Amino acid sequence: MHRFLxxxxxxxxxxxxxxxxxxxxxxxxxxxxxxxTHTTGPxxxxxxxxxREYDRNKDGFLSRDELPRWxxxxxxxxxxxxxxxxxxxxxxxxxxxxxxHRPSDVMFVLVEMSDCDECSLEExxxxxxxxxxxxxxxxxxxxxxxxxxxxxxxxxERVDEIFEDLDAxxxxxxxxDEARxxxxxxxxxxDRNKDGFIDRDELLNAVLSPPADALRxxxxxxxxxxxxxxxxxx
Length: 234
Hints:
Elements: H1 2-17, H2 29-39, H3 47-54, H4 75-78, H5 88-93, H6 95-99, H7 106-112, H8 117-134, H9 144-166, E1 173-175, H10 181-185, H11 187-190, E2 197-199, H12 200-207, H13 214-217
Antiparallel strand pairs: 1-2
Helix pairs in contact: 9-12
């Protein structure tokens, strides 16, 4: 358990922050380790060296097959002029994609870096249950409409939790006296109709605002309770 806490937590932070080493990518983990000289540490990314190392046919460009496997999902983004190959200049412009970590790499951390299988299993089960609920048509593929529906559902749950905690007199709105923390600090901004209260619609509007929106940042984050696995009929 101690090793899990020491290794997994820093790794999760590095993955989500977009800095540090990449999680290993099946099935070419040895190649990934060799590539880390280009993607980690204080040194800057050298596009010329990277091109020279991976340009197998020595034509001065990188095809999709010549890219390391862990980079291939970024090929379309790197190929700015859409000519089917990546130049040194395109590598330099797309450096953020060479260094970028995928949030989904967190799954590899949970599977690989724990000496407490029960701990990892609990977190993976939570992710699995949420993905199953998002897949409303049960076709095994997550669609944009399902993502939006899940975001709205989570937003409503978050608003319900905040009202359960703060709406002391249960009148369906939060007064300035009832507000706490960020809600109190940003009360005037959240109270859009200026009636002296924050109602559910006002709070939901803030929660569902784009992440960069100032209104979204005015709402405090709340830790979600672990999802309960659904029971299936045998």
